[in-house]
Design goal:
Blueprint: H1 2-5, H2 20-25, H3 30-38, H4 43-47, E1 51-56, E2 61-67, E3 73-74, E4 78-79, H5 81-95, E5 105-115, E6 123-133, E7 137-146, E8 149-161
Antiparallel strand pairs: 1-2, 2-6, 3-4, 5-8, 6-7, 7-8
Length: 164
């Protein structure tokens, strides 16, 4: 999909094409963005079996599903906290894709995770949103649910990356 829509940015050449100017210049819908994301996940998100479910450009928010199996667990069927943190990091970071002038992605500078209860092997639903953004820094938050239970919540500070 990216090859079909790729176009030179007005100020910089984006390597990935997955930024808001790209989405708006080609009038991509939220559904188009979900399809685009699901077609180009990095290995870290693939390892977590991540899948975008919905994206909202107006609120820069994203909902994702993650599926775990016994490889993610310790102490029986309890998912290890590092994987839960990774799911939250992915949901929050990819929510930032809707920020103006974001070209290549984000780098997490700081992340705080609060665990509410254990996550069991199975499906998780992660949500991420942009709370506030400036020229170089953005503040994000996210939640990870399993069924109707809040498993963990997080906040994150990220550096907005642009092509050189």
């Amino acid at each position: 999909m990216a090859g079909r829509y790729r176009k030179r940015c007005s100020r910089t050449q984006c390597r990935t094409g997955n930024h808001p100017r790209f989405f708006r210049e080609y009038e991509m819908t939220n559904t188009d963005i979900v399809s685009f994301l699901n077609g180009q996940w990095p290995p870290s998100v693939e390892t977590l079996n991540g899948q975008a479910i919905s994206f909202c450009q107006d609120t820069s928010s994203l909902v994702m599903h993650f599926d775990t199996d016994e490889r993610f667990c310790h102490s029986g069927d309890i998912v290890q906290g590092g994987y839960i943190s990774g799911m939250l990091d992915a949901a929050m970071a990819y929510a930032a894709i809707g920020l103006p002038d974001l070209c290549t992605g984000v780098a997490t500078l700081e992340m705080k995770v609060s665990f509410m209860q254990v996550g069991r092997n199975g499906r998780f639903t992660g949500s991420g949103r942009v709370i506030h953004s400036g020229r170089n820094i953005a503040y994000l938050d996210g939640e990870l649910h399993q069924e109707d239970r809040l498993v963990a919540a997080a906040t994150s500070t990220v550096k907005l990356l642009r092509s050189a």
